[in-house]
Specification:
Two copies of one chain form a homodimer.
Chain A (H helix, E strand, L loop, with lengths): L2 E9 L3 E7 L5 E8 L8 H16 L3 E10 L2 E3 L4 E5 L4 E5 H6 L6 E5 H12 L8 E5 L7 E4 L2 E2 L30 H4 L1 H12 L5 H9 L3 H25 L3 E5 L7 H15 L6 E4 L6 H13 L3
Parallel strand pairs in A: 1-4, 4-8, 9-12, 12-13
Antiparallel strand pairs in A: 1-2, 2-3, 5-6, 6-7, 9-10, 10-11
Amino acid sequence: MTREAVVGIDVGGTRIKTALVSPDGAVLAEAVHLTPPAVGDRLGAVAAEAVDRLVRQAGDPVELLAVGLVVPGLVDDEKGIGVWSANLGWTDLDLHGSVAASVDVPVAVGHDVRAGLLAEHRLGAAREADNVLFVPLGTGLASAMLSRGRLVTGSQWTGEIGHVVVVPDGPPCGCGERGCLEAVASAGAIGRRWSAATGLTGDAEEVARRTEAGEPEACRVWQEAVDALAAVVAPVVAATGTELVLVGGGLARAGDTLFEPLRAALRARLGRRAEVAVEAAALGDRAGCLGAATIALDLVGR
Amino acid sequence: MTREAVVGIDVGGTRIKTALVSPDGAVLAEAVHLTPPAVGDRLGAVAAEAVDRLVRQAGDPVELLAVGLVVPGLVDDEKGIGVWSANLGWTDLDLHGSVAASVDVPVAVGHDVRAGLLAEHRLGAAREADNVLFVPLGTGLASAMLSRGRLVTGSQWTGEIGHVVVVPDGPPCGCGERGCLEAVASAGAIGRRWSAATGLTGDAEEVARRTEAGEPEACRVWQEAVDALAAVVAPVVAATGTELVLVGGGLARAGDTLFEPLRAALRARLGRRAEVAVEAAALGDRAGCLGAATIALDLVGR
């Protein structure tokens, strides 16, 4: 029996995640591999190989309906342009054209976090909510928002909350500024700041464990991250009427070690008035490639 | 010649502003009067009297198409309910029903700031922009947002940025908390804080003049207001891709005394990356009643 499906491709700074997904949301095949150098020059080949590999892996015959590609950084979803990515090293790259030249089905292009939120809305932890702020806390930190079930997109900087300065003259950020949210509250920053303070090596997961154990330096770094996050999230919740803050990325695995103080910090900044739920995203690091599949399905009306 | 028109009514804590507006946006008549006590119990009479007075005032015969009513506080625009207003003293008031019982045309109900932004978008300073954050700085402080030309509305708390805590343990706010944005950056707060610091009496306009003259206490109070405003506005701009911050209310009359430091504070928090324009609203304190007329025109498809 031939099954209809789309391929979703999430090109990250370190890994490329791909999935073959049927219109009902079932994942028929998945693969992850390392991002090759100069990936921007070979997106066509990456897409064609992903399609071949996943279709072979699925076993049953597949009718490919579309391909979805998502990337980080600044993305013009409508024109299919990768406007800028620090990690992937491109500027004004024609993502749509590159992929469309190598596959003979329609191609959808999107932003990894925005598409990830669509997947959480369709398949994950935001199925019941229409006014959602999605904040994946990983190496980097960006956001996406649903208002009445629709993605909010304004300028090309939409979602770049990681580079809002929350601690003037704070720790240096990869972007060249100091005290950006990403430099205080991303998983990467938490590990780095704790290591710098203690002289020990360890990642955010280590800091979470030591926070649970009550170690003072870990608790301080952790609480500063939580406060910085609340300082940025609270105004957004108030201005847009967010009902659910969905936390994703590696840091979400810390569970209530993160969510309890974050809920408390948001209550302190919003009062009892603006009740907002804080929950873990459901799709983990698959949100991006399932999101890529979601925009591919949307493109062909499935 | 009979002209088609709608009546817009903006019920504020101090004044009721009303206007008779034609579908092309021309204001045919206007009136302002004091808000009577217990206005929530007599909205039907207020609306009927406004219609009578404005139609008489217009001179030419008028075909009334609809009435629009806007109020502050928490408003359920769709159900036409005044959920809560501290100033006007109501809870779950059936605004739509009260007015509809007294006029024999369709009635639209909305929030004063959200409707004011629609009027700025249709007739005022936001005509060219589709991604706009509107912040009227008056006695109180709330916001409204357009994303791709559509109002963003989520929970009933949407736009309540005035009660985001920006200065923990800061000055007391009318809401019972401390350090809310409204307690630092509203026109009312600026006057109060400067008076408390100097022992002199004066309003925000006075503080603006003394800031221009370089008086240290005035400059300090003014800059604290600007910084608090930027701390709330910057995350919203970043998360939603705002392209234009439109400042209204009495404080906007300070012009570049307000806008220049506000632009600088936003640049400091957003970096060069997220260019956002900061401009004065055009409709002043008529934004609310012109907004009420706008939602009335929208309701009847004009």
